Every structure is written in C-alpha cells, then in structure tokens.
Amino acid sequence: MTLNRKPIQVLEAVHRVMEKVRVLPPETVYYLNSGGRVLAEDLTATNDVPVFTKSAMDGFAVRASDTEGASGDCRIEFKVVEEVPAGASSDYILKKNEAFRIMTGAEVPKSADTVVMFEQSKETEEGFTVRKTFTKGENIAFQGEECLKGDVIVPEGTLINPGVTATLATFGYEYVKVYKKPVVGVLSTGSELLDAGDTLERGKIRNSNTPMVLAQLGRMNIEGRHYHLESDDFNTILKRVREMIEAVDAVITTGGVSVGDYDLLPKIYEALGAEVLFNKVAMRPGSVTTVSAYGDTLLFGLSGNPSACYSGFELFCRPAFLSMMNSRNVYAPFINAVLDENFTKPNPFTRFIRAEVKFTEEGLLVKPSGFNKSNAVTSIAKSNGVIVLPGGTRGFKQGDKVKVMMTDMTSGTDTFRVPDK
Ligand SMILES: Nc1nc2c(c(=O)[nH]1)N[C@H]1C(S)=C(S)[C@@H](COP(=O)(O)OP(=O)(O)OC[C@H]3O[C@@H](n4cnc5c(N)ncnc54)[C@H](O)[C@@H]3O)O[C@H]1N2
Ligand code: MOO
Ligand SMILES: [Mg+2]
User: Fold this and answer.
1) Region 287-307: what's the mean pLDDT?
2) S-S: 61 plus which of 90, 100, 136, 199, CB 3.0-4.6 Å?
3) What are the alphabetically sorted keywords of the record (predicted)?
C-alpha cells in the first residue's frame, strides 16, 4: 500500500480530477437566491432596453427644429404645456415652441425629439428660453439602444454575479434555471483532534481543517456538511464515509493519507473499491494528497497538515466543484508578481507558498505570508494567494518574477487611488 506510490505532476493530477467530474442536473430557483450559481439557460432579453425612448436628463422635451437659429442675442422662448415625471407618459402633440417639463427616466412623448437640460435653459413665467440650436436626439436614451428583445444577454454556463442578478430582474426572470450546487461532506480524521470549544489536553490539538474547509466552501457559496467521528478507527471511518457517499455529492476528508500506522484512508479507499486517481503528487506541501472516485462521487483525501489541506482544496476541490455546477471559468487566476523578499529554499517539486499579494502603484508585489511549513496554519490567515514555484528550481531572489495563484479576490489595498487628470 505504502510502497507503490508514484508521484505525478500537479497539472496531470488536476486533469485526472477534472475528467471524473459529472455536471449536476439543473434546478429552478428564485432569482434572489441565484447569486454564485451557474445559469442553466441563456438569459434572453424579453424586452428592448431601454424599453421605451426616455429622457436622460431633467429638463424640457422639445422639437429640435423649434430651436433653430437660437443664440445668446436671440433667445427662443418655449411654453411648457405639460409635466412628465418618471413613470408617466403623455400623448399630447406639441405645437410650435411648446415643450414638456420632463424628468430623467420619463418616456419622451412622440411629438418631442430632444431634451433641453435645465442648465441649458433660462426659466420664464410660462416656460423657458434657449440660446442655442439643439440637434435632434440630444439627451435622449432611445428604445433598444442598449439591446433588443430576443438578444442573448448572458449565455448558459455563466456564473451569476450582481450584474447578472440585475439583468434577471430587468427581464422579469423571477425564477431562473441554474445548475445544482454540490453538497459537500467534510470529515477530519485524527485521534489528536479536539473542537474549537475544547480545552487543550496533552498531545491534542484543535481541529482547524474542518472549519477551514467549510469556510473555503462558504467562500464559494457551497454548502458544506460537517461530519464527526465518535472514534478514530477503521470501521468508524469506513461507515462514516459510506454514509457520506449516500448523502452528499462529494466527500472531503482531511488527514490520514500518508504512510503512518494510523493513516487509514488508503485502506478505506481499498475497502470501498474506489478508483484511486492518484495518491502522490510532485508538489510540496500536500504530496500525499489522494483523490479517488466512487461511481460519480469524488473522494478528496486532503492532507492533515493545514497548509497542505488548504492548497489541496484550492487546487483540486475548487475547480471540481465549479465544474460540477457547469461553470466555464473554474480555475483560479494566475498572476505575475514581483517577489518582495528572498526565498532561498530549493524546489525539487512544485512548491506552493501561502502569500500576501500587494497591489501597489508600481505593480504586484508578493511575499510569503509568515511561517510556511506544511503544518503551518497562521500563514494561511494572512494570505490572499499562493506563490507557485516550479519544480527543479533553486531559490528565488527579491525582485524575481513569480507566479501567484489568487485565492482571495476580496482583499483590497489601504489607499484609494483613482487616476486624476
Ligand atoms: N514516513 C513518512 N511520513 C510522512 C510523509 C512521508 O512521505 N513519509 N509525508 C509527510 C507529509 S509531507 C505530510 S503532508 C503528512 C501528511 O499526513 P496525513 O495526511 O496522513 O495527515 P495526518 O497524519 O493525519 O496529520 C498530519 C499533521 O496534521 C495535523 N492535523 C491533522 N488533522 C488536522 C486537523 N483537522 N486540524 C489541524 N491539524 C491537523 C496532525 O496533527 C499532524 O501534525 O505526513 C508526513 N509524514
Ligand atoms: O505533503 Mo507534505 O509536503 O509536507 O504537506
Ligand atoms: Mg499521517
């Protein structure tokens, strides 16, 4: 069991997982609950946008031809005949030098073709005057100028972001077809584990992997189910994993995948008759990460070491779960950044280093986010990305360009910089 582990490259490992992914069936959900899901139907415009020709400004709707010849010395006067606030409409036909008082968003009556902003006019007792000739269509948003009824606005397979939610509302999609999200079971193994609320005892540590993985799932808007072990032995783990396979779409276990006497996961996969996709990856940390398939259920055996567990999830679980939801863009973005301190360790295997990426005016700077061994937990807390150093490289120096896999796209910077004139 322990001896025939053949390391494969990270890329190959990711491919093996992704090949096994089965897309979950679609379901219909209320549009306000669809954020973070993937569209299972094209979102088609059910009306033109704008749906009617409307004023883009507060002012007066006129016929442009009536403003012809106006100048500072020769102001042309208009009489206001009606008011059209947003939400209202009018069928009144303008006569020469008549105008509507109109507000932004209000339907422009058929007989008007131009809007004069309040700031471009001088109010008089009965109306206003203008001092320039207006071109037809000024300050008007025309029906269908943004899109036409029947246009495909957002294609099937797109992740629903706030803009898609706005689009769903615009076109009256109160219910929308999306792919099901996987329900993921999370089980940490290890007889040394206590819960967060427990007092430390000799030889024991608090379980940080389950809460971390649940939070990684939460960050993806995916429901994680926390499973427990009443005792950390082969039969109990096997029984629990069997229950999980019945109840969830994917199983994540942490710990017990290495070669120790109590590393039981390899034997569990064997007892299940699961197909082991790989049990060794040429990477650090997480070289013992194991992924198996039991029918359509993927079993992710993440390493017990917290840093290895964290990057194992980001590398293998995240794209697999996004793919189960039929998302197209399932991989974390890789960016180029400049290393902001020396990293002298040689890298026989691909190395993943929890890191802090800083968005500075000069560009992207990155440095390891603290104590960075496989068993580290605190450096994860300070990271928003993971530096990826290719295998077969010696150390890296400050100023070298490195690749970073972004894991947290919500982190900001401490200075607001907007380019001024
Ligand atoms: N003879 C060898 N020993 C080890 C090898 C090896 O190749 N040969 N690989 C080492 C590497 S590398 C890693 S990584 C670990 C992987 O260990 P396991 O995945 O089997 O995980 P455990 O043994 O259960 O635990 C490892 C470590 O992590 C702590 N841990 C476990 N679970 C949690 C949790 N839920 N929360 C916080 N911390 C956890 C555990 O106490 C151990 O310290 O194996 C090496 N050994
Ligand atoms: O496989 Mo382990 O490299 O230390 O996480
Ligand atoms: Mg172990």
Assistant:
1) 97
2) 100
3) Magnesium, Metal-binding, Molybdenum, Molybdenum cofactor biosynthesis, Transferase
Domains of the chain in sequence order: 10-24+181-324 (3.40.980.10), 28-47+152-179 (3.90.105.10), 54-141 (2.170.190.11), 334-406 (2.40.340.10)
Judge whether 387 and 368 are in contact, CB under 8 Å.
yes
Tokens of 309: 């567990």
For 86-195, strand residue ranges (E) read 98-102, 114-117, 121-123, 127-130, 140-141, 152-154, 175-179, 184-188, 193-194
- How confident is the model over 246-279, as pLDDT tens digits? 999 999 999 999 999 999 999 999 999 999 999 9
The answer to whether 78 and 62 are in contact (CB under 8 A) is yes
C-alpha to C-alpha distances, 399 to 57, 131, 344, 361, nearest whole angstrom: 51, 61, 13, 16
Helices (H), ranges, 252-304: 265-272
Pocket probe for ligand 2: among 283, 287, 371, the residue whose CB has the most ligand atoms within 8 Å is 287
What is the pLDDT at residue 372?
83
Which is nearest to 188 in space by CA: 218, 209, 215?
209
Q: 193-252 pLDDT, tens per residue?
A: 999 999 999 999 999 999 999 999 999 999 999 999 999 999 999 999 999 999 999 999
Give the integer Cα–Cα distance in Å for 176 and 130.
49
ipTM score of complex: 0.97
Nearest CA to ligand 1 atom 5: 258
